[in-house]
Amino acid sequence: xxxxxxxxxxxxxxxxxxxxxxxxxxxxxxxxxxxxxxxxxxxxxxxxxxxxxxxxxxxxxxxxxxxxxxxxxxxxxxxxxxxxxxxxxxxxxxxxxxxxxxxxxxxxxxxxxxxxxxxxxxxxxxxxxxxxxxxxx
Length: 137
Fold this sequence. Notes:
This protein has 137 residues and is α/β, with parallel strands linked by helices. The chain has helices spanning 29-46, 66-78, 91-106, 120-128; strands at residues 4-6, 9-15, 18-27, 53-64, 83-87, 113-117.
């Protein structure tokens, strides 16, 4: 699957079961819609029963516009990833993400397991502690 760019997001399926996204700047509703579509396409490309992990490098993320918050909820409902780790999220952005995650949990939605870490090494370690994606062909 080729690398795609949608507004603030540059997305890529690194291997079956693992996607990588770079988030730069402010995310819009349209960017989150495209991120959701990309995540679902990654899940499909990874095969039935695959554990889908996502790494989101958010060190350069500056926020979400108003419309993006609703789309973030839709992304959570769609659950394209089983586990997602955010790298280097600024405090203000992390608060918004955590509010949406908590709202989905309160509505008893089956959401992805989410972690916030500071480095790529910590992200890899966190993902290594979870279910293993299937090996590539």
